[in-house]
Amino acid sequence: MGQAELDSKLSAIVPNTAFKLDERSTLDILNWLKKYAAIIPFDQDKKQFWDSFYFIHKNDPQQLANIYQQANQADGLLPPHQAFILAFLKLLETTKRLLNTFPARHRDLYYRELLGLNPRNAQADSVAISVTLNTDNAEFLVAQGTLFDAGQDSAGNSLQYASDADLLANQGALTDLRWYRKDGNNGRQSAIPFNLSDNIALPENGIRLFSPTANDVSVLSGYLITSSLFAMSAGERHITLTLENDWEGQAEHLTAKISAEDHWLSLSVKLIDKKNIELGLSSTADPINPPDNLDGMTFDVPVLKLGTAQQPILPKITGIEININGNRSVHYASDGGTEQTDKTSFPFGQYPLLGSGFNLVAPEWYGSENATLTLIPQWVGLPTKSFKAWYKGYTPEPDNSAFKAQGYLVTPQERKKLTGTPSLFGGTDVPQGQSLSFTLPTMDYSVSDNPSPNDWPASVRIELVDQDFMHTQYWQDPTGKNLPYTPQISALQIAFSAKVKTEQYTVYPLTPFGWGNANAETPSFANDALYLGFTNVSPGQTLSLYWQLVGVQEITLFWSYLNQQNTWQPLNQLVHDQTHNLFDRGIWSTLLPQDASNQATLMPSGRYWLKAEISQQTAPENYPKMQGILYNATTATLINPETVENDHFIDGLAADSIKQTVSASVAISRVKQPWASWNGRPKETESAFLTRIPPRLSHRNRALSWDNIVTLLKENFISIFDVKYPSANELTKIPAPETQQLIVIPNSRYKDNDDALRPILNPARLAEMADWISQLSSPWTTLKIDNPTYVNVLISYQLVFATGVNPDYGRHQLQQELSRKYMPWAEDSAIGVTTGNRIDYYPLLATIQQSPLVERVTNLTLKKSPQTAGAIGDSVEAADNEVLILVWSEKSSANKGADNG
Fold this sequence. Notes:
Number of domains: 7
Strand content: 25-35%
Mean pLDDT: 91
Organism: Photorhabdus khanii NC19
Shape: elongated
Number of strands: 50
Strand order of the largest sheet: 9-7-6-31-37-33-34
């Protein structure tokens, strides 16, 4: 076997042998031979040594080594014994090659042949895709294994991904994502982070579920009240609500609005007492009317919305009373014709006799029962003395109370007398006008639009009774008599009040995005909840969603759907949840129940709704952060990963690389892949294989030592940069701690927060690590895994900057320089945080002083939180589980001139 053939065969077995048993070169051996021969005498006298024989003719080791390397340049005069040495060295090369590859060949034999270990193959990456169907396909089955085209890798190899499961796609779409969340102790906030119809998109960088948004709205706990009697067109309008129980809240926490066709009118709120609330609307406000395309409401009567954004919730409504003062829209007609209530008129005519009168009607009166109508005439031209004195000489001589009015309800069929005959005037001297109150019977008639009350189905007529103003007597004999008073008014103020009967109003409990069934119980909103809205889908079809999110911990969810009875029903159908309750990205799918409704009022109409309620209290920071949701979604995995270049697995498949299936489908119009692939891993290199196996053989998947624990955790959790175990001082404490604490240094690329200075892993990850390593360790060992404890060190200094240096610029640059020196991991993700670190006062002082921006340092202090004060010259040292973080106070950064602390 030739030398080249031997080299080729050995390279096939051992591609790269860094370790060599014999690394000596030909020159090294010749030098050794000369050195060794130089101490062996040639004769008994020891006057000559063998080196003078082997290296004759000025052929020293360097010269012989050159001839050995370039034999074709030899002159052919080499002495035989030197040629023998070179030939022997040539023969030695084969032995040397075999010797130098022996450790690697032995290791290869042990690892591969005996233990059966081999480098890991490339791991296929996965992608999330959504499918959009052509409009003429109601449903289409995308079978498991359907291939999707992702282009080519850097070497021109085709990239194809096969779907991981069957997907029964449909024409539906996810159009809404909404939620409500607890806000403090008493309040609730609702948000709409995603709404397709209003072009509201999720933030590009994602959003944490139930986090505050810029458009949060306070959730009102209260009622939607409908009643035809709310239709009050003008005047000062008041609505008084009576509660079932005392309400301990405050008026400023109440919000009241009433419908006015396409907009809401805000009402003033006044607490009469703990059981009665008065709502008011000014006379200048628009008429109250039924809603017209207002918040999706379809009521044909006006709607009152009353709610509170704070606890306690409102008790039930047990009574309603309406009041209208100064309604200028009342239809008014005297016997002489149509009049206006805000203009001068003669209500009983200019020749008032018994039976003279006027008619009134207003649409607000219709539908009422036992309502109170109060008239307040604004009389003009009254005598300056009592009527008895004014009418002296008349028969009779009436007093102020003699002139009375009788009310009637007039219909085409009858005149129904109203209770009471109030006097028009009062007082004992100068006549004083009095209010006239009448109780109306049931006004169950249809409203008319005729301006004259006489043409309405029913109107109220007020007639002069008992005593007229004696115009006839005067004209028969005016001698010695004052001119009789002709009743004239400058305006007629009208007040109307009515208690709304129970059957005349309906109360609906408010919900965050709609309202419940009539007279249903008020929901408590005890738990946070999110809502998903879908359109163009039919009951019985599949809802297949892909959630792109990163969870902090597995949360407890209760899923329900909105049914045709306008109630939330448990989603009893089989739910396939790869997200583990929104803990990790994955597919979530179910069937839309047959009794699901897209017209229920608990939520906006036109969508089918699912609700996920958080049934166990969860801290806001422990909710998952979501990038987006796909509809008609499935996952797909790369096929034939062994034929794909390694750089594909390192970089992953870029977003939007997949746009179509490999085989064209007439049913599919579009394929979307909004995010890069994940879980890809290149084929393990020989060096990585040889690095991985020794510790694996050392610990044998058993956590028997601290080094084993560290190695196992780092091997199995990519999010770990390093692990710190207790120091010798801690381990030798007596008595020994019952729980041993490990500190994990997070890999900055996989941290669960957004703070580059203080990277942490979420509690769920830490618990997973602790549970996993506990299974491999001794049952008598209790391990606890924590994040480092980050301790702020307040640095304060006073500086004199070099001439020409702007102090603000100098402070900023110095802060950046110190951050890079003492906290380098913030800028370099390849560096982990340093636990147990120390900030020495004088080296820090020297660092600042050596900055070219600084002329001198006049003061420097360090204060470790939570110490109350720092001292000059004090260094700061962290405990084993702590990491020191330099912080600059706002005061420090805002100072001017030389003072920076």
